[in-house]
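Bench notes, afternoon.
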Amino acid sequence: MKASHSAFGAVLVLGLLCGTAPASGQAMGPEWLTFDRAVSRSAVSGKRLMVYVQAEWCTWCRKLEREVFGSEAVRDRLAETFEVSRLDFDDKIGTYRYADRLISPAELAALLGAESVPTVIFLEPDGTYLTRVEGYVDELAFTNVLDYLNATASR
């Protein structure tokens, strides 16, 4: 009995040290909306849009989600001034209405300028393109982009 207790304790400690167990109550990222929902909410809220283009196989996407989107500072900035959406770079089956036509998430990602993953695209509420961030960037660089966009917002 004692051996199994200490083995469980060792596994728990190892899991916590490796970061495999999230802290209680810790959010893992922003509230991801479908693109259609983010556009609708943006029209009502007046917040800008952030569209995160990712793929299931992309290790840099997972790192971005864990280290950047998982950051409290990033989540707070996004919640304050952006409606956030996520697109699957490889999804050619789903459909969204954009520019008066039905297109797949992969086509929409390409139309918005994503040529690789991860790519984060920023748009005005009316869909006007602002900028994009291609590839992995660390938390500091990403918060700098968000702070710059917030400072240049026409309100």
